[in-house]
């Protein structure tokens, strides 16, 4: 019947053990956690301070609102009725502006020095000569094209008139019957057209200018009772026809882009492509200078009026009376006063994304330090690990976001204060879960903390920059299909950016509410849906990749390669392979006997054998064009309960590969192994509950104490209450870590020997039935090593131990049987005395004399043993191996006494073969 007494602790027990350990670990990292959570607080306070300084400086520089009396000379009457320049600046002061001025609509007229003229590179001869620039008399050019030239010429003629009699006191009459323009560029954000604040004159565009064609324009000033008097000078409009729009494009390019590189600029007033216009269709395209965007309306009005007159006659006209901006109240919400708002979603994205490197590097650190593997080898399941790790990251991320939102709102950040808090909570909660799951996914691809840190940091800042300068443009461009925006939002960073963008946009209109989610332009619901679906998919994929790695299949990047090679490996082993194996082991009777015992145990299982390995192989795939590496070549081994088996072998022999397979770090390529009757290939999780591991390098948490380590691993072995406390104290005492307060010191204060003893104690706690120890005495002083040997001698009485070591003394002292492993194969197996007897049937004779007497020593040895071999020769010192069956010890003593009578003997010695000699002989022979 299968023994389940040492099965894994329950899910709850494992979760409790890991939770207690992590809670203690995080308490020790309280300072780091506090700094992390305080990061948004510091940023919020910093920006609140900067925003206060910004607003104070702006207040100090502010001018009074509206028109004020500049000087009354003490008589109560204003010498200057209105400080007009101050009123102009009201737009930046938060002043109320209810009665905005009505300004005559203007055209953007090129300055005289830029008006289009003939040039060397221009093939159009109908342009004026450039000498007009010197005289200040250049006309303004208007280009026309279309499919109907007759219609085009009529429309062009209707646009501009000759001088007519005007009621100059009536601004509407002036605007309706003249075409006014200015060469002063319009400044976006101004409440007043700067053409009426400049000393430069206005222009009255006409077909022909009379000698006295100046026009006085009176523009009333709101809130002042006065008006601006501005002179409008006549400028001639030169209407020119072009056969194609391509010709206009070429002319515009040569006159502006190419002209700039050659030192001149040819600007036109406007260009019109009437396309297929006729009496039933009016279809026009207008070219204009980008600097004249705010004055394009007048160009459209001119074309519309010209076409209307073509249809209805000269009397028909759409009067374009004025232009003005919308009024505003005092203190109207302006994001210009909010520095963070001015930075936009990029700033908020950077702050929130700072959590991503924390999640990723924490997971990769446990992977790099092999702490995750160490916990798994002692019985911790994947479920409890994921649950506790995910819960920790979720808790720290939630605290981080709560602090960010609360402090951001408290210092006046509008994105937090104006938008509905429930909407913000849902958005941030979904994102931090997606971010955590994405961290688990990427952690499967990294094994180095430095690389993970670099990549995650690039992701943080790259996401913010690309979002601000690329994705933001796509969002605002309504011509781009939504499917492309959604495709980009599949990247979690852009989902975050889109949500922050929506929150920011709604702050301008009082904040986002639940009803706003139904707006057609609101992308928040789509972002939520993407986050939920992606969260589920990413967490499933991440868990799958984690299972691939934890099962010993290696990096996920090699999965396809392994699947591709699987059909080939399924054909192993063949009959030929088995035959060659028997031939190879023909001269190794002890290895063959071990294989036969394994085959018998597989047919007739025995509960007395803790470990059975049957033809175990491990092949590492070739990389960079190199062939495959056969690390373990068909190992068969049976280890009974109560035996300490020592594995000896040179570096690279395959010992570590064998141990890795047995503890679940890697999967066997072929063959089988059983631990306490459990199949290594399918029941590794249960095997982990029955084994203890002391790895070659100490895998410990620097901030935990020795006692806390043992408490954690003891709980994983189902120890509770007084039994747990007693087992921990006994383990500490057995490795001499109990007294003097050593048990309660942090591991980072331990010496190398103390850490090694703690690793041994961890491997033995919970009474595991099988223990793997990889060079356990490395770094120990003689006293500690002797104490450790006594512990292991006691421990092996009721468990099987596999020990790897390079110390022949340790192997001989501790191991019941030894196996020498060379080049992936077991070369010999047996107890130390058997091996010395089998492979070391010689005496070692050493003698030191003068160089002149060396030949005499050789003669003496040949007389004692005809088959003796000299193995060492240096400056009079010689060493010989003499077969035991040819030599009697008494004869050796007699021969030495005889030699002393004939020449001087400085030193001599006779010794039996040591285990080290056996190891060297077997390794070199293999």
From TrEMBL:
<dbReference type="GO" id="GO:0005319">
    <property type="term" value="F:lipid transporter activity"/>
</dbReference>
<dbReference type="Pfam" id="PF24526">
    <property type="entry name" value="ABCA12_C"/>
</dbReference>
<feature type="domain" description="ABC transporter">
    <location>
        <begin position="611"/>
        <end position="848"/>
    </location>
</feature>
<dbReference type="InterPro" id="IPR003439">
    <property type="entry name" value="ABC_transporter-like_ATP-bd"/>
</dbReference>
<feature type="transmembrane region" description="Helical">
    <location>
        <begin position="385"/>
        <end position="409"/>
    </location>
</feature>
<dbReference type="GO" id="GO:0016020">
    <property type="term" value="C:membrane"/>
</dbReference>
<feature type="compositionally biased region" description="Basic and acidic residues">
    <location>
        <begin position="581"/>
        <end position="590"/>
    </location>
</feature>
<dbReference type="InterPro" id="IPR026082">
    <property type="entry name" value="ABCA"/>
</dbReference>
<dbReference type="Pfam" id="PF00005">
    <property type="entry name" value="ABC_tran"/>
</dbReference>
<dbReference type="GO" id="GO:0016887">
    <property type="term" value="F:ATP hydrolysis activity"/>
</dbReference>
<keyword id="KW-0547">Nucleotide-binding</keyword>
<feature type="transmembrane region" description="Helical">
    <location>
        <begin position="526"/>
        <end position="545"/>
    </location>
</feature>
<dbReference type="InterPro" id="IPR027417">
    <property type="entry name" value="P-loop_NTPase"/>
</dbReference>
<feature type="transmembrane region" description="Helical">
    <location>
        <begin position="453"/>
        <end position="475"/>
    </location>
</feature>
<keyword id="KW-0067">ATP-binding</keyword>
<dbReference type="InterPro" id="IPR013525">
    <property type="entry name" value="ABC2_TM"/>
</dbReference>
<keyword id="KW-1133">Transmembrane helix</keyword>
<feature type="region of interest" description="Disordered">
    <location>
        <begin position="571"/>
        <end position="590"/>
    </location>
</feature>
<feature type="transmembrane region" description="Helical">
    <location>
        <begin position="30"/>
        <end position="50"/>
    </location>
</feature>
<dbReference type="GO" id="GO:0140359">
    <property type="term" value="F:ABC-type transporter activity"/>
</dbReference>
<feature type="transmembrane region" description="Helical">
    <location>
        <begin position="421"/>
        <end position="446"/>
    </location>
</feature>
<dbReference type="Pfam" id="PF12698">
    <property type="entry name" value="ABC2_membrane_3"/>
</dbReference>
<keyword id="KW-0812">Transmembrane</keyword>
<comment type="similarity">
    <text>Belongs to the ABC transporter superfamily. ABCA family. CPR flippase (TC 3.A.1.211) subfamily.</text>
</comment>
<dbReference type="GO" id="GO:0005524">
    <property type="term" value="F:ATP binding"/>
</dbReference>
<dbReference type="InterPro" id="IPR003593">
    <property type="entry name" value="AAA+_ATPase"/>
</dbReference>
<dbReference type="InterPro" id="IPR017871">
    <property type="entry name" value="ABC_transporter-like_CS"/>
</dbReference>
<feature type="compositionally biased region" description="Polar residues">
    <location>
        <begin position="571"/>
        <end position="580"/>
    </location>
</feature>
<protein>
    <recommendedName>
        <fullName>ABC transporter domain-containing protein</fullName>
    </recommendedName>
</protein>
<feature type="transmembrane region" description="Helical">
    <location>
        <begin position="347"/>
        <end position="365"/>
    </location>
</feature>
<keyword id="KW-0472">Membrane</keyword>
């Amino acid at each position: 019947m299968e023994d389940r007494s040492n099965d894994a602790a329950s899910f709850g027990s494992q979760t409790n053990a890991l939770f207690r350990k992590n809670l203690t670990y995080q308490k020790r990292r309280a300072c780091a956690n506090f700094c992390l959570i305080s990061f948004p607080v510091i940023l919020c306070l910093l920006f609140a301070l900067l925003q206060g300084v910004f607003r104070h400086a702006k207040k100090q520089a502010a001018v009074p609102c509206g028109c004020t009396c500049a000087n009354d000379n003490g008589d109560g009457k204003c010498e200057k009725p209105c400080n007009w320049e101050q009123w102009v600046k009201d737009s930046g002061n938060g002043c109320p502006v209810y009665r905005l001025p009505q300004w005559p609509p203007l055209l953007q007229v090129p300055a005289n020095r830029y008006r289009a003229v003939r040039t060397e590179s221009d093939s159009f001869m109908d342009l004026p000569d450039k000498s007009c620039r010197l005289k200040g008399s250049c006309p303004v050019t208007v280009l026309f094209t279309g499919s109907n030239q007759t219609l085009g010429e009529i429309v062009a003629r209707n646009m501009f008139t000759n001088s007519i009699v005007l009621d100059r006191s009536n601004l509407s009459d002036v605007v309706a019957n003249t075409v006014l323009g200015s060469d002063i560029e319009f400044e976006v954000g101004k409440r007043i057209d700067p053409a009426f604040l400049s000393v430069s004159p206005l222009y009255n565009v006409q077909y022909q200018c009379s000698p006295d064609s100046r026009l006085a324009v009176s523009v009333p000033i709101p809130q002042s009772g006065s008006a601006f008097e501005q002179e409008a000078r006549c400028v001639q409009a030169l209407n020119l026809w072009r056969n194609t729009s391509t010709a206009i494009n070429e002319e515009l390019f040569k006159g502006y882009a190419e002209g700039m590189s050659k030192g001149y600029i040819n600007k036109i007033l406007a260009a019109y492509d009437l396309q297929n216009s006729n009496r039933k269709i009016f279809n026009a395209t207008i070219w204009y200078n980008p600097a004249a965007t705010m004055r394009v309306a007048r160009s459209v009005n001119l074309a519309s009026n010209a076409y209307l007159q073509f249809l209805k006659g000269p009397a028909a006209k759409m009067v374009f009376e004025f232009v003005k901006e919308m009024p505003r109240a005092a203190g109207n919400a302006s994001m210009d006063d909010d520095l963070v708002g001015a930075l936009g979603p990029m700033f908020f994205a950077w702050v929130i994304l700072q959590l991503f490197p924390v999640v990723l590097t924490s997971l990769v650190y446990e992977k790099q330090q092999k702490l995750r593997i160490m916990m798994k080898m002692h019985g911790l399941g994947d479920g409890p690990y994921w649950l506790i790790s995910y819960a920790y990251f979720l808790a720290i991320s939630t605290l981080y976001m709560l602090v960010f939102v609360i402090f951001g709102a408290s210092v006046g950040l509008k994105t937090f204060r104006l938008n509905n808090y429930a909407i913000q909570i849902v958005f941030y909660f979904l994102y931090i879960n997606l971010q955590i799951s994405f961290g688990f996914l990427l952690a499967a691809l990294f094994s180095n903390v430095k690389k993970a840190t670099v990549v995650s940091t690039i992701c943080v800042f790259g996401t913010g920059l690309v979002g601000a300068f690329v994705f933001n443009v796509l969002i605002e461009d309504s011509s781009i299909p939504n499917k492309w925006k959604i495709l980009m939002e599949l990247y979690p960073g852009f989902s975050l950016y889109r949500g922050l963008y929506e929150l920011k946009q709604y702050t301008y209109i009082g904040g986002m509410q639940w009803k706003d989610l139904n707006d057609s332009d609101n992308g928040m619901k789509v972002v939520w849906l993407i986050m939920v679906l992606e969260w589920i998919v990413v967490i499933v994929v991440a868990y799958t990749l984690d299972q691939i790695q934890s099962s010993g299949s290696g990096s996920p990047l090699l999965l396809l390669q392994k699947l591709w090679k699987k059909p080939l490996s399924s054909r192993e082993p063949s009959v030929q392979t088995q035959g060659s194996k028997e031939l190879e082991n023909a001269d190794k009777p002890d290895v063959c006997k071990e294989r036969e015992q394994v085959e018998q145990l597989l047919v007739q299982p025995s509960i007395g054998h803790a470990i059975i390995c049957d033809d175990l192989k491990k092949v590492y795939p070739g990389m960079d064009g190199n062939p495959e590496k056969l690390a373990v070549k068909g190992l068969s081994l049976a280890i009974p309960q109560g035996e300490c088996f020592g594995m000896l072998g040179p570096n690279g022999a395959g010992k570590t590969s064998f141990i890795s397979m047995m503890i679940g770090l890697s999967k066997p390529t072929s063959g089988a192994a059983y631990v306490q009757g459990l199949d290594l290939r399918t029941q590794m999780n249960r095997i982990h509950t029955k084994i203890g591991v002391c790895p070659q390098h100490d895998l410990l948490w620097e901030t935990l104490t020795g006692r806390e380590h043992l408490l954690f691993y003891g709980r994983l072995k189902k120890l509770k209450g007084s039994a747990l406390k007693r087992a921990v104290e006994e383990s500490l005492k057995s490795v001499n870590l109990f007294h003097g307060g050593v048990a309660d010191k942090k591991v980072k204060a331990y010496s190398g020997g103390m850490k090694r003893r703690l690793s041994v104690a961890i491997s033995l706690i919970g009474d595991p039935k099988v223990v793997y120890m990889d060079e356990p005495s490395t770094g120990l002083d003689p006293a500690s090593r002797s104490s450790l040997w006594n512990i292991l001698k006691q421990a092996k009485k009721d468990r099987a131990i596999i020990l790897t070591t390079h110390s022949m003394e340790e192997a001989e002292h501790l191991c019941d049987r030894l196996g020498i492993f060379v080049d992936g194969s077991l070369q010999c197996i047996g107890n130390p005395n058997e091996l010395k007897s089998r492979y070391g049937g010689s005496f070692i004779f050493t003698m030191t004399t003068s160089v002149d007497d060396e030949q005499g020593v050789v003669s003496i040895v040949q007389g004692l043993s005809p088959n003796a071999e000299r193995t060492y020769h240096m400056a009079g010192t010689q060493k010989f191996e003499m077969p035991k069956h040819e030599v009697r010890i008494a004869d050796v003593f007699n021969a030495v006494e005889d030699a002393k009578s004939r020449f001087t003997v400085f030193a001599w010695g006779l010794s039996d073969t040591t285990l080290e000699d056996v190891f060297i002989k077997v390794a070199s022979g293999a």
